[in-house]
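Dear colleague,

Following up on Tuesday's group meeting, I ran the structure prediction for the two-component complex that the binding team flagged. I've pasted the input sequences exactly as they went in, so you can double-check that nothing got truncated or mislabelled along the way. The structure tokens for the whole assembly follow below. Feel free to forward this to whoever is handling the docking comparison.

Inputs:
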Amino acid sequence: MGIFTKFLSKIKGASSLSNSDWEELYSELLESDIGPTLSRQLIDEARKSKSDSPEEGLHQILLAHLSTQSREIRRAESGPTTILVVGVNGTGKTTSVAKLAAYLQGQKSNVVLAAADTFRAAAVDQLRTWGDRLGIEVISGKDNGDPASVAFDSAQVALGQKADFLIIDTAGRLHNKNDLMAELGKVKRVVEKVLPINEVLLVIDATTGHNGISQARIFTESIGVTGIILTKLDGSARGGVALAIEAELGIPIKWVGTGESEGDFAPFDRESYLRGLTQM
Amino acid sequence: MFESLTTRISGAFSSLRGRGKLSASDIESTCADIRLALLEADVAQSVVENFVTLIQEKSLAALPEMQSGTNQANAIFEIVNKELIEILGGAARRVRFAKNPPTVIMLAGLQGAGKTTLAGKLAKFYADQGNTPLLIASDLARPNAVTQLQVVGESIGVPVFAPEVGSGVGDPVKVARDGIAFAKSKQYNMVIVDTAGRLGIDEELMKQARDIRDAVQPDEILFVVDAMIGQDAVRTSQAFLDGVGFDGVVLTKLDGDARGGAALSIASLTKRPIMFASTGEKLADFDIFYPDRMASQILGMGDVATLAEQAKKAFNTDSAERLEKKFESGEDFTLEDFLEQLEAMSKMGSMSKMLSMLPGAGAMKKQIDNFDESELVRTKSIVQSMTPIERRDPKVLNGARRARIALGSGRKVSDVNSLVERFSAAQKMMKQVRNGGMPQGLGGMGMPAMPKAAPKNVPQKKKSKSGNPAKRALEEGQ
């Protein structure tokens, strides 16, 4: 049962909800990984809201905390639009890269993929398998080679082929590992000798808790994240940490992943995301 | 924005100092702080509620005793810490070996939890102890998961049973069943079955997991879970418990900066012990789970044990031994040693991360967050601009030499002066430490006088100075 349905009978105005009702709402927000501090703030704001119903009030407040930045892909003015995909281990970067490629391909764009995850065993093969399935060229180097060199090569290929998009898959790295973050900086610098990077997409797993904010902050500090891909939203997790990231850092969620097939991927839709959050 | 429990509790009590005894309402407000801190650490709500109620009861019961103590805040803190360890490690145990080999271990978990990597780590862990594990590649869903396991197996010299190429092709149940038969025929004494990641709510895949389970009759099913997981830990662990069942938990990616409250939620809700912890990208980064360390991490109390281990990894053993001998024989710690330490430290990763592992770091959270990492580089550059003689004996540093060093390192003379001053102060302190004895075991790290993780010291540590000259110099340099 949705959180609000049980209040429907009482809903006449925000003031008609009892304290324990509000606490229940607070707990519902917490449950979605929005975090205790922000959840409390949202509830406080909703209580003050002058909307006709608490439901509407909370909805408006959640909306107001979403990033105001554009959720469109930042396209290159000329030449291939270059997208770097980053994130901690196991969030679904490689799968997201493939899905994004399939999506763009569906829009009749010509895509080149770069397998710059040279660290994880068989990550290159994983992307190649996707490339074969989708009929998309995957540029790769040697296992344990330098990811920056693969990225550099791929940028040259994309430029030479006049591709519309270049998507660079990178190895998962925990944001608190300085050397690995520095490596990412190098990948970016080297690619930018050939092509400017238009998007740095951070992949966040919807099951992540409070740590997602730390991930977003540190990746942003070191490489300038321009958008979020929120993955695994098809599970029982609601991905509230993404809202916390938007509220705190202003980085927009651009894409949402909801399964293992290439079609399980869509541009972020705030209405359905918010519905999922509060189970309205 | 993120305050540790230590900060919260000491904050709550600082206002009480000099105002007399703790009251029941003080305990209540402290418990509210504990609640918030645990929620921020991603502990599940229901677990937090039960836990806080328990703490409140115990604290109230201990109130008369506490009121006579000198450090009342710590008394509560100790209760919290003890209870955390209790929940996390109450039923800790090792893998049960089968009477008739092979011992079968099956892995299950969400996508991206780190099962395949873990399979390799587990195999290495047991192979190193003289077992003969076989890995079975039953993740046929994720593209090239089979290849990944093969690469991992090859790198640790453990054979992989992989008759199917995977990437969506083949029957994982059959592979698992055949793998067990193969292991028996070849007399492997242990089998580790890697399975595909699946969502708790995916009934079809849960059924497949049950089928694999029934086919291999595992001695242990290990639920593999990412330490960064949030509130969903409750639903997911319950779904796996109901869907396939598990006997133990493995926490992965514990080398991140997550507080890992999920560990508490899962241990508390499923009553299954956390058996292993995975702490890095390399296949050797794997260990038995230590409840006390996890408790420290959740509480933001610092984790000196882990810090010591990381330090051991980063510090070259030869130089550490040399330093230790030097230290014991009463020789002076020189700027050369200092430089060596600085270099080892930069290998260990971010300074703020390391500082945050020290007990009492919670109280310095803000300073740590604002820690200027390049300070380390700047300090290093000053030492590097010195001649060997100067490094060994800073007393020779006259004005001309200092001016030269400043020029060489691109710093001001005043920076050089302050480094030298701080260094000699640290040197003096080390002599004191040496005379007063030092904790055994930490000397090997070449980082003398590291405070031990005693919760008792937590609030006082705020003002204390590190015995590590590098850290001390940096702290003071802020």
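Confidence is low (pLDDT under 50) at residues 8-14 of chain A.

Cheers,
M.
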